[in-house]
Write a structure and sequence with these properties.
single chain; alpha+beta; Nucleoside Triphosphate Pyrophosphohydrolase; 8 strands; globular
Amino acid sequence: MNTCSLGFIFDTDLKHVLLVHKGSPEWQKGLINGVGGKIELGETPLDCMVRECEEETALKIPSAKWLQFATMNIKGNITNVYATTYKGAMKDARKNHHEEIEWFPYNELPQNVIANIPFFVPMARQQILGHDSVSIEITY
């Protein structure tokens, strides 16, 4: 069983979301996903989110700024899903890992995203706005 964290970072106007062009794991290669990865020994899911964000984007977003809004359980693999905004310049986000990152217009997501991204990105945005603020658990 793996436990992971997945996050969606928006600009302050909530018009763009920062996503990652995945190179690994193999099943994600060539697809676009949110920021995140596996929880390391001794880490909480939130600690993982903060660490992965800095590793993948060079953005230092403190734990208090992340809102958890979903948990996925896919055959025993747990993913904790978060949302946040970044108040600095969009150019501050830079490749700090082996995978490319890119700001996409919120309403123009690319076609080659992980299947749940079109579902999670609007939900993450709504969570930040405080509209329809819910916490969901998805099991499949």
